[in-house]
Amino acid sequence: MRRGVPGPAAVVRAVVVRAVLGLLALTLVALPFYAAWRYDAHRRAVTPQAAPPAGARPVTGEAAPPRGGPGADAAAPPVVLAYHDIGPRGRSRYTVTPEAFDAQLAALARAGYRSLSTEEFVRYLDGGPPPARRSVFLTFDDGTHGLWVYGDRILARYRMRATAFLITGSVGSHRPYYLSWQEIGRMAATGRWDFQDHTHALHRRGAVDAAGTQVSALSHRLWLPGARRLEREDEYRARISDDFDTSLAELSRHGLPRPRLFAYPFSEVSEPADSASSSAILRHELAARFAAALTNTSRRPLPAGRRAAAAREVQRLEITRATDLPAFRAELDRWTAVTPDSVPRPLEDRAGWERIGTAARAGPGAFTGEGPYPGGKGYAASSYRPLATADWTDYTVEATVERLSEARNDVGIVVRDRSLTPVTVSLSHSYVSLFTGSGARRTEVARRTLRDGAVHRVRVTVRGAHTEVVVDGRFRIDWTDEKAAGAAGRGGIGLVARNGDAQGEWPRFASLRVSSVRIASPPGARAGTGTARTAPAEGR
To answer: What is the rounded distance in angstroms from the CA atom of residue 338 to the CA atom of residue 390?
Structure first.
């Protein structure tokens, strides 16, 4: 090798050194730009949080006496509240302002309410005891960024927690409307938030016929324009199953626990226009993956409780921009469960009666002789606090009825109201009948002839699957229906009054009392699909 000429190893070293120095220079030049890009990406993925509304303070204290007297909510199920978004400028009726949300949580705190985690709520639905004397389950649908920007710090102020139902296919899209996965991660890390399922890509509407009628794409079989037909049941099942599984996989991929609850998009469970089989398919697929599904509407009252748990469907109290604080308190009261012993004289609770099927005012006036009535003759029906009494079982109703007129008018007392097995005791001038079911499925199963009279006293006792009717202390009907056992037969009371003569009087309830029954099962009760026994009640 000639002196002064570098060898191959030296050449390689020189090349490597120059490359390293070049990369270092490039890194030093690019680092500020990379840092700026990362900061911008982070800023776009994680929106800064807003401070809670000024002037508010955390509040604690003893709960005010519950409506209906002491012990009305001693073992009450939780009330489930449904929100959507929180924001100061939203025009949607579903956007609650931060000030309103703060005031609502303050009202809950003052009344001694505690918010539940999803785990606590599901444990209760699975058969556990009510988790607290007063509790709420706060839920938010859709996963909007207002939960992180405005809601999170308000929850922290009152030491409460909430559950967000995510449309996983929308996370990070249409920013800043939907939450990002980075924001969701931060929310989960606080311990204040749980995340559950609200579909992956089926929170939308779709056509169910050639005319383009739009309904929930999850809850219905959709119209296939290319084939000019409705989806087959197997196609529908495959479509919704794939969406559920994709959504669950997305949540798992981002490190979140597997959801136990599902919220129906638009709260549309099913529609009469769709076939019953589609509803059965949807419920089956949901039951295979979730403990329960949540909705804001229901064909019968399903507030959180044993009836709802059996149906695997829970109805929520929806809070909107129009829900001011007095309305919030009133609705919370309407949904809070009461016991028969806490409301012994229902007719005195004028606000508790909800009229059925008539434009006349709600209230008990059509049953007490005060009016208003649907007309000179007609029919009036009301339920007593159907949300608060949905889980009633083992209770007695005692009533005195006046102004009964032969073949002209009659009254009805409904027990197990709005359940799957309602029972109506129909009382007239000369007979008492027992009906099961409602509407077109209402069937008379027993009848007793009475001593004619304008006044009758009746006692109706509900114990498990058994219903006992005694009129004037003498005439008795016993009815046992195994379908009424358990949650299927739970329900409160309703009243019916009918006047068939425009020139005659409407009948009236001179008194109405309810009370709890502690006996587990009646002596001599017989099980069966449906058995009735009529007998005198002397000596009882």
So the answer is: 9
Residue-level pLDDT at 89: 79
Yes or no: say if 201 and 243 are a contact pair by the CB < 8 Å rule: yes
* Residue 148 CB-density burial (10 A; 0-12 exposed, 13-18 middle, 19+ buried): buried
422 contacts 415 by C-beta, under 8 angstroms: yes
- The helix/strand/coil state of 30 is helix
Are 79 and 126 within 8 A, CB to CB? no
User: Are 473 and 537 a contacting pair, CB within 8 Å?
Assistant: yes
Are 214 and 205 in contact by the 8 Å Cβ rule? The answer is yes
For residue 478, which amino acid is it?
Answer: D
Residue type (1 letter), 318: E
288 neighbors 150 (Cβ within 8 angstroms):
no
Task: State yes or no: pLDDT of 6 exceeds 80.
Answer: no
For the 79-202+241-335 domain, the top CATH level (class) is: alpha beta
Give the predicted TM-score (pTM) of the model: 0.86
Break the chain down into helix, strand, coil percent, rounded to 5.
30, 25, 45
Report the sign of the C-alpha dihedral through residues 354, 359, 365, 368, in that order. negative
State which H helix or E strand residue 180 sits in.
none
Q: Under DSSP, is residue 152 helix (H, G, I), strand (E, B) or coil? A: helix
Q: How confident is the model at residue 522 (pLDDT cuts 50, 70, 90)?
A: very low
Positive or negative, the Cα torsion across 144, 146, 148, 151? negative
Question: Kind of pairing, strands 95-96 and 114-115?
Answer: unpaired
Torsion over CA: 263, 210, 279, 438 (sign)? positive
Interior/surface letters 70-91, b for 16+ CB within 10 angstroms, e for the rest: eebbeebbbbbbbbbbbbeebe
Domain boundaries, the chain: 79-202+241-335, 340-536
**Residue keyed to tokens 């626990």:** 257
Token reading at 538? 């002397």
Nearest by Cα to 263 from 162, 396, 349: 162
- CB distance 291 to 312 below 8 Å: yes
How many whole angstroms separate alpha carbon 414 and alpha carbon 452?
A: 22
pLDDT at 80: 98
Which of 195, 188, 214 has its CA nearest to residue 142?
A: 195
Burial class (CB in 10 A: 0-12, 13-18, 19+), 60: exposed
CA-closest candidate to residue 146, choices 106, 115, 190, 176: 176
| CATH architecture of structural domain 340-536 | Sandwich (2.60)
CB atoms within 10 A of CB 303: 26
State the sign of the Cα–Cα–Cα–Cα dihedral 332, 338, 344, 347: positive
